[in-house]
Amino acid sequence: MELAVTGGRVLLPDLTVERADVLVDADEGVVRAVGQDLAGDEELDASGGLVMPGLVNAHTHVAMTLLRGYADDKPLDAWLQEDIWPAEGELTPEDVRVGAELGMLEMIKSGTTAFADMYFHVPEIVDAVADAGLRARLGHGVVTIAKEAETAHDDAEESIAVAREFDGAADGRVSTAFMPHSLTTVGSDFLDEYVPQAREAGVPVHIHANETADEVDPIVEEHGMRPLEYAREHGLLEPEDFVAHGVHTTPEEHELLAETGAGVVHCPASNMKLASGMAPVQVMHDAGVSVGLGTDGAASNNDLSLFDEMRDAAMLGKLAADDASAVPAEAAVEMATQGGAEVTGLPGGRIEPGAAADLVVVDLDAPHLTPGHDLVSHLAYAVTGSDVRHTLCDGAVLMRDREVLTMDEDAVLERAERAAADLVQRV
Ligand SMILES: [Zn+2]
User: How far is the CA of 327 from the centre of ligand 1 (A)?
Assistant: First the structure.
């Protein structure tokens, strides 16, 4: 079946905008053509709208939607230890499934078609991705500190097993990664033992790194080197690997990232909310580092909209560089589309023949998007998630005229309210 997305304007890979139709091969899940007067077996109306690549949320913990607004206004360390970890300790597989569904519903409604996720009870998340119709790179987050050796090994084994089992699931829409939680919560002996197993399994490694100063200092003190140098020593930073945050990074570390080809996921809202710091995004760009954009979990954001994240990235990038020309609109849009796809190794991020048919249509007919001097500026600074009219992933329509077709919206919200209330009771 061929689907013609007609009557709109299209954001091309070079970030120019052209009046064009997009022809999608719904069976193969690819874009066949971008051009004038294209006809398919079916039509999707994009008139008055901008057809753009689906957004890539390159770092999140999607099931944390159940903890949205549960604990706010605390620094990372206290927030994790006093609120988040105790609550997460009570999460059942069913809770994770419900939280993941809620997050995916929110992503579909705000124009995200692909995401990278680090969490636990991953088989539940795989099932939810399969049903929702999104694309994802999933992994089990490993923590080994303050654990008995056997429990720590079990956790690492599970991350490898999940990566092996589910790579290619959901008709190829699910990819996986080995996901040690961070350089300070996973011991170096575990990295030495398990990272080679991830290489053997052919999956990338995704890890939090250089998020706060408190996380950097112990590594420097104990090992006499910067965290990313330490990561490299222990087998990380292959071209397919990607680290979340990179807030407290040095020029030497940027050089290391650029040399190795490993990517960084910038999470500006989470970094601001937890007062973690300002990532030197413009400096990383200039050094040739691949950068994607992520929301991080809903508990530290508190939404999963990448339109908000683009705005935050552009704004915070200027403040960090003390330069209003830093992280321009184009850079923010690039990070949320092609950059995220490149960093996570997921298809998508561009609309051109042969590319994955992961795309969204944004309604431009709104007061806050008028006049239309520069649509890329609007995407970075003025569009909100609720301006998204249609969402397609892998050639399938997931949302049409704001109605999500793959999920029962009311039922998802109701289950989430109930699961969240039960969870808080137990904690
Ligand atoms: Zn995170």
Answer: 22
